[in-house]
Design brief:
- It is built from ten helices and eleven strands.
- It is of the alpha+beta class.
- It folds into two domains: 2-68, no CATH class; 130-337, Sandwich (Jelly Rolls), CATH 2.60.120.650.
- A seven-stranded antiparallel β-sheet has the order 1-9-6-11-4-3-2. Strands 5-10-7-8 form a four-stranded antiparallel β-sheet, with no helix packed on it.
- α2 (25-68) packs antiparallel against α4.
- The two termini are 44 Å apart.
- The structure holds 2-acetamido-2-deoxy-beta-D-glucopyranose (4 copies).
- The site of one 2-acetamido-2-deoxy-beta-D-glucopyranose has 8 residues, from loops.
């Protein structure tokens, strides 16, 4: 802006020069407009360059996703205890992606889907299963602070002091921010075709309106920052999360009718996982990962409202089961930390 005066002056000079040479006002205007058109073209070129850059970023993300889930690369890279080193890599990519997504919200669709193609044959040869082999029960570590030397192979429970989050609360939050959720977090996965998006779940009052066989299950995945920030009001970050762990943008909310059949919990972005039950009761069967099934036992824990269960993905692949005496809908919230 500082150069505006100089610009004006120069423009005056040009006009004066033109007038002195018998060029009409009309012709001067046309000439000036033409010169601006040249600028517009240049800008378009810059945009194109930016798009090419973004393509490279995306290509880079895809390559890294591919590598992180590729077995051979891992076998070479992961020597014993280094399993967690993949995640700092993903963390870096997320850090790169976040400012790009903030400037170009239209790209977040791509960001949403990245790494969805995870390798089903992923298997680490020679994984060190000592961290989970020493687990004999799932401790309740309420009030205990997790130190850096804590063995992450030990799953644990923490009781939290908050009021239950019911369907009504989520409904209210959704109505208040319906525009955001419509564009950012509409899709749900369900075992019942009646529920195709989160509006169906809320509109049909799933909590009051049970199905006949009580089988309905819904997984709602939220992976956009705006929607995630709004949901934080109802699903805050656990108070004593170790402060060297960074929360992933990806969140899951599960709605289960009392008899909703067993399902495996999804594999989230980061390896330190927290699942919190906010209303109702479910059983969580902690099954050791296939690499560690020979040396680590399975456990079953009752997850009731107000409890959170923490575990590490490298050692545990939990299954969510119906609790026998449950009569209400269960809502649980899952997120992960890198
Ligand atoms: C839990 O919250 C209630 C009310 O908010 C408070 O009175 C109580 O002291 C809290 N308990 C703990 C263990 O923090
Ligand atoms: C219960 O579900 C049925 C079938 O989906 C629907 O037609 C009805 O409106 C729902 N009732 C309430 C109270 O939401
Ligand atoms: C799907 O859900 C609706 C609404 O709760 C219910 O009426 C219907 O029986 C369910 N369908 C199946 C196959 O469970
Ligand atoms: C279900 O039954 C078990 C064992 O009898 C009990 O510990 C638990 O509190 C019950 N849960 C509910 C939600 O009633």
């Amino acid at each position: 802006m500082a150069n505006l005066e100089i610009y004006k002056e120069q423009l005056q000079k040009i006009r004066q020069y033109a007038r002195e040479n018998d060029i009409t006002e009309n012709e001067i205007d046309k000439a000036l407009q033409n010169s601006f058109r040249i600028l517009e073209k240049k800008e378009k070129k810059v945009n194109l360059r930016f798009i090419v850059k973004i393509m490279f970023v995306i290509l880079f993300i895809i390559i890294v996703c591919f590598i992180s889930f590729d077995k051979k690369f891992l076998v070479v890279m992961l020597m014993r205890n280094l399993q967690n080193s993949i995640y700092p890599g993903l963390k870096l990519i997320r850090k790169i992606a976040v400012p790009v997504i903030q400037h170009y919200p239209s790209l977040s669709e791509l960001y949403d889907e990245w790494c969805i193609l995870e390798n089903p044959y992923f298997y680490v040869n020679d994984m060190d299963c000592w961290p989970c082999s020493v687990v004999h029960f799932i401790p309740d570590l309420t009030g205990h602070h997790i130190s850096r030397s804590f063995n992450v192979g030990i799953p644990y429970i923490k009781r939290e002091n908050f009021s239950d989050v019911r369907m009504k609360d989520i409904q209210e939050l959704l109505w208040q921010n319906s525009e955001v959720f419509k564009t950012d977090a509409m899709k749900v996965f369900s075992n019942n075709k009646t529920y195709r998006n989160i509006q169906d779940v809320m509109g049909k009052n799933m909590d009051l309106n049970f199905s006949k066989n009580l089988y309905n299950h819904i997984t709602w995945r939220i992976n956009r920052m705006t929607a995630g920030r709004i949901l934080r009001k109802l699903f805050p970050k656990p108070i004593d999360t170790p402060n060297w762990w960074e929360q992933s943008t990806e969140k899951f909310i599960f709605f289960d009718e009392p008899k909703s059949p067993p399902y495996s919990l999804p594999n989230p972005e980061c390896s330190n996982i927290m699942i919190r039950c906010t209303t109702g009761t479910r059983l969580i069967k902690m099954i050791a990962s296939s690499e560690c099934s020979a040396s680590c036992k399975s456990f079953t824990v009752l997850l009731s409202a107000g409890k959170t269960l923490w575990y590490n993905w490298w050692y545990w692949r939990p299954v969510n089961l119906p609790a026998l005496n449950s009569t209400t809908i269960t809502i649980s919230y899952m997120t992960s930390f890198c």
